[in-house]
Design a protein that fits this description.
Elements: E1 12-18, E2 21-25, E3 42-48, E4 52-58, E5 66-69, H1 76-93, E6 99-105, H2 115-131, H3 139-149, H4 151-156, E7 161-164, E8 179-182, E9 189-195, H5 205-215, H6 219-238, H7 242-261, H8 270-284, E10 289-292, E11 299-304, H9 308-315, E12 323-329, E13 334-335
Parallel strand pairs: 5-6
Antiparallel strand pairs: 1-4, 1-13, 2-3, 3-7, 3-12, 4-6, 7-8, 9-11, 9-12, 10-11
The chain binds ligand DP6.
Ligand DP6 binds at residues 23, 26-28, 36, 42, 116, 150-152, 205-206, 294-295.
Length: 336
């Protein structure tokens, strides 16, 4: 876990684990201020069953930050985002040394399975713990730090159902962290992740949002609608109304993608539509299943635990589905 103190000759290290989260009410779009503030509120569920493990080691012997993601050096934007987070940790803690970061995912990376959410949540927690081993872990601070690298990561710091409100349009540098809304066992929800492709997505979320804001004739409509969907979904969740949660989650995903598609940002592939159609057919036949899709081709299917085996059986047979991961609400980021 941790050893030594910042700026001493001994290396200081910590290892954290975190899980992806799936937004039920989607975040898509940023405020105009620097600092990565979401333009709309979002509500997610953190999932167990897929894990990022990240070790951070600050040592005087490192000439620059080094990042290993699943054993290879990512370079480019992924490296810059990680070293920028480390710069923020150094500025906040007085740590002066560079770090070696080793991160592994036991699920596809950068493919729309929210690897950046679990990745930056684990990195923020491990880096703060390594740099300031004597300071109490302040989850709100870790969440704010993670958000600055990837807004969805702010939510993976917490377990269960989690919200992240929108950034303010007036203030340019506020603290903004996610907050737990309900514990993991609040609903008997299962999330069936239908994996439709291995490998990276063509357009990352940050770029997809930028292009949507710049070119979609429906972006304004999305900004107007998303907060209402978020409020309704939050109320349905607190009322434990899974049918309403599922209905609103599917509507939020479709509205987000509609605004993106109108700007030419298309994450759907043939298999994505095949799963979407299968979900709608299953629902018409009486099964409580709802679909949500992020910045990638995979479809995440929401279902009550009692109907999850039947739903899974049907979904594995959909053409183009490579495998179906069975996940449930789980815990937030923690030290390993
Ligand atoms: C579709 O959090 O990956 O998954 O803040 O630019 O890193 P950045 O974006 P990111 O976007 C996630 C988008 C989404 C919806 C969501 O998770 O709310």
């Amino acid at each position: 876990m941790t050893s030594g103190a910042p700026s001493q000759s001994r290396a200081s290290e910590a290892t954290a684990i975190a899980h992806p989260n799936i937004a039920l009410a989607k975040y898509w779009g940023k405020t105009p201020h620097a600092g990565n503030y979401p333009a709309v509120p979002s509500l997610s569920v953190t999932l167990e069953g897929m894990t990022t493990t990240t070790r951070v080691c600050f040592a005087g012997s490192h000439e620059h930050d080094r990042v290993l993601l699943n054993g290879s050096e990512p370079g480019g934007d992924a490296y810059t985002r990680a070293s920028t987070l480390l710069d923020r940790v150094r500025a906040a803690t007085g740590e002066t040394r560079h770090a070696l970061v080793e991160s592994t995912n036991d699920f596809p990376t950068a493919s729309g399975l929210a690897s950046s959410a679990s990745g930056f949540a684990a990195l923020a927690l491990a880096a703060m713990s390594a740099a300031g081993p004597d300071t109490r872990i302040d989850e709100a601070r870790i969440s704010d730090l993670a958000r600055r690298s990837s807004a969805s990561a702010a939510r993976s710091v917490f377990g269960g159902f989690v919200e992240l409100v929108a950034g303010s349009l007036e203030r340019a540098d506020e603290h903004l962290s996610a907050k737990p809304v309900a514990p993991a066992d609040h609903l008997d929800l299962r999330v069936l992740v239908c994996v439709t492709r291995e490998g990276k997505k063509a357009v990352g979320s940050t770029d997809g949002m930028r292009r949507t804001a710049a070119a979609s004739p429906y972006y304004r409509a999305w900004l107007d609608t998303a907060p209402r969907m978020f409020e309704a979904l939050r109320a349905a969740l607190l009322a434990k109304d899974l049918e309403q949660v599922g209905t609103l989650a599917e509507a939020s995903a479709l509205a987000m993608h509609a605004s993106a598609i109108a700007a030419g940002v298309i994450y759907f592939e043939g298999a994505t539509l095949a799963v979407l159609e299968a979900v709608r057919t299953l629902r018409a036949n009486g099964l409580g299943v709802w679909a949500t899709i992020d910045a990638g081709p995979h479809v995440k299917v929401l279902v009550h635990e009692s109907e999850s085996a039947r739903a899974r059986e049907a979904l594995v047979c959909v053409p183009g589905v490579l495998r179906v991961l069975y996940t449930r609400p789980g815990a937030g980021a923690r030290l390993a």
